[in-house]
Amino acid sequence: MSDNTVLYVDDEPMNLLLFKKLIGCRYPVETASSGNQALQILKEKPEIQLIFSDMKMPEMNGVEFISKAKEYYKEKSYYIVSGYEMNEDINQALKSGLISAYLKKPFNLDEIFKTIQNSIV
Question: Which pTM was predicted?
Answer without folding.
Answer: 0.94
